[in-house]
Structures
1.
Amino acid sequence: MNRATAFIAAFNDIEQYLRRNYGSRNAEGFRTLVRIAMREQALPQPQADALFAFADLRNAISHGTYHEGRPIAEPFEHTVTEIEALRDLITQPPTALAVLGERSPDVVTLATTIHDALKLLHGESLSVLPVYAKSFIFLLTTDMIVRWVAEDLEDDGRLDAHSVGDLAPYVSPADMAYFSRADISAATAIHHFTDPGHSGLLPRAIIITPKGSPKQYPLRVIDRSELPKLVQALDF
């Protein structure tokens, strides 16, 4: 198999996968399928950009000169390697947990002392801690703690709060979490961490629960600081 044939084979695998999963009919063009997959949070922008470029190359090969049934023009070897790697990422999308690994979540309650919460944040190099009672209450963030320190000290020069519950008044809309099941893909996790959507806000964490409900105890908390690992895993 020459490089052009290998390239076309990988491209066709991608197109068939996108059509099977995101096409409502066989009339959609390849670029339309890519845009639909992006809207469905299945493709990050770098992968979509690569697919658009590969589509142009596919057209050049398909409409070029053939000799004995084989295209004369051939892509570079590294181009074939790239599209084959991208095909594997798209048709067998890794989950976020497969990339990041399992990790028991650190969770606090309203009664947890601020001292203990700070020890958890520092010891585990975290920037967020979910606060739970029977269900999720709010996300304790380092930014929230900074707001509390600044406002409380300004009030009377002392830090009066003692428990996590005392920090509830300092919660802001920016201290939000997105809830998902354990099968969330790495691409979808990247989307939530990078696309603010209509709200204009980005989650500080993705909280994994059995059914993606805030009423359930977390299985894993994905901190925004883990985003680079997710992005790197989808590199090709």
Note: The longest strand covers residues 136-141.
2.
Amino acid sequence: MWYLLHEASQVAFSPARMIADLTKLACTHSLNPVTYTPGGRALVASCELFERTTRAYPKPTFNLPASERVVWQQPFCRVIAFGPPSNKPKVLIVAPMSGHYATLLRGTVAAFLDSHRVFITDWSDAKHVPLSEGQFDLSDYVDYCRAMFEALGPDLHVMAVCQPAVPVLAAIALMEAE
């Protein structure tokens, strides 16, 4: 439901964003006397704020000094490995899937690169996954975590950042119970 509202708001605000851009352009033109007034500057700031808060941001890159390769992939997630295989301790960073990109954790990945083989989850935007792949709920989330842990092998350290803490703990508990 929330995703539908988000998508609807992106479409609905598109004309308003264009109007805000045109207003900003007009109010910052050097020949417009409004440009030099406090009201004009406030209007420009309001237009910039509106545009930035309603913009659909593209997915940024990690832009780290290490190679990236996909080592595990399913419809709703993939695991990216950084750097060449090594004997360093392995750490999987399980990023939130709550509408943010794993690249927001680039600083965390960078901090681990010198001392660990780093892996990170890169969750797919559900709107890009075909309905034929089925739904994705909490038990699927836990199953994905278990599959990732098994694919990355023994002696794996796992760091869940915020939201995935519960599914990660559930996956570990289920694996321990077996």
Note: Residues 2-54 form one domain.
3.
Amino acid sequence: MSSNMLRYKPLEHRDSFRLLHLEPSPNHSADLKGSLHHATLSDCDYDLIEPYTALSYVWDDASQRGVIFLGGSAKDITASLDAALRDMRDKGRVCRIWAHALCIDQSNNAEKGLQVALMGRIYSTAHHTVIHLGKSPPGFEKLFMDLKAQSRTTMHANTSGLEQLSLTADDIDGMRRDLLSKPWFRRVWVFQELVLSTDVWVQCDNLRIRWHHFCEAVDIKSVVS
């Protein structure tokens, strides 16, 4: 597929941005389908549009591609964005997502400059930000399940997140090494997205956990502080 099959409609206002309305599917391998819609940050300030999720991820090798169908047009996307959208796609409802590579016309330098200037507000206005780390390393599912169970209980003030997990210290050390080897943690600019966001979640495959629970369990606060 060729990305020039999609024609972006120009943004009308200085605080305008696009949101992807990602269509639902119960099938993870089904074609990605959706539509791009214009919104303004002013509308967001007054709750005139439904909440959206901002995506934080790392672009990968452009030679590996996916495709999303938008209103009958096809748009090439990187493999990492393809994976993130598939993992975030809901089985039964439309998801409203802001993703830099898709919601900004990358062929329009003037628009890119204006949109980059708005990115701080786009992330801070989002209802959630999802950090998509890609594939889960071995054992990650167990860690995520433990973290979800832990988040439903009250943590004791004198008990660390690590002590409440059923995984061993060696398991956690292995998870931590795998986590920090992810490309997301080697890119400086993504930390700006993290700091600007109000409700941050970490996702690997279809597993999602709140950022602060994740940090408590694998002791990575020193990495991002």
Note: The chain has a mean pLDDT of 84.
4.
Amino acid sequence: MSSQDKCYYVLAFYRIAPLQNPEEEVLLHKNFIENRDIQCRLYLSKDGLNGQMSASKEDAEAYMAWLKSRPPFEDLVFKIHYWHEHVFPKKIVKLKSQLVALDTPVDFSKAGVHIAPKQFREMLENEKDVLLLDVRNDYEWDIGHFEGAERPPCVTFRDFNAYAEKIEKEHPDKPKVMMYCTGGIRCELYSAILKEKGFDDVFQLDGGIINYGLEEGNAHWKGKLFVFDDRMTVPIAEESETETCGRCHKCNHQAESYYNCANMECNLLYISCPTCLDQLKGCCSQKCGEGEKLRPYHEQNPHKPFKKSYEYFGFKKNPHGQGKNKRKAKKNPVNHS
């Protein structure tokens, strides 16, 4: 894809800072983006802002300037990628009880030490007795991760409380910890949790994998980066290739793309090679391919996360609850984590 084709900014950003009136901040954001070429997922709480956005160049730059002109967002750092279309289906601005779903109160003042991508790379190359933690979900690790990071036993971020207890038991000596996540915000929570458990030397990658790729390229990274938008997987850097570490759900050959099963009773998120994907017409198995509610595989190219059922089959829930689809699909990490 040539640079002139990439006409949309894809922004990832967050700010941990007390908001005196998060309800008002939600309204301000809704008013600002209402008539602009912006699609987004913006979550606000009393603890700050967690945002992802795709926007035209003009409106992305206007939003960044507007946000950074107001406290407490003056020093907010935006991670920027470029894409040929919107990567979010709509505008979402919501008030949340937590910026990241953990179900546990977190003291953000106890977060770990932020280290720049260059320093993170140097520590990967020189530190010997260090525990490298991938603070993402297991399916994110499967498609790409830093060398030496173990696969986290977590399907959602809520599982990381149990993972912290496991780490505490397995490492009573409390070694030095390095951790990373996609954009940085999950490390803000998890580093604080580990410090509360007695891990004193906790270092977190500033700006996450996205920032590392922009500054250090693919050094010590394998595979692709899972993202929670229509792209699903992206390289962390464009200047060079890296080892493919994903494996096809069906044949176990190397693969680097995620898909949702076309059977709406399943909706499984899975990795597939192009051959198996085409043979099964977007389904994760032969059995799923025999289902009644199959989304049109050949109508999506490139294969984005599947849309809601009514967009394919023409039915919606009505306000009286009559005629609604009672069959529930499996929880899909792309849409719900």
Note: The domain at 3-95 is CATH 3.30.70.100 (Alpha-Beta Plaits).
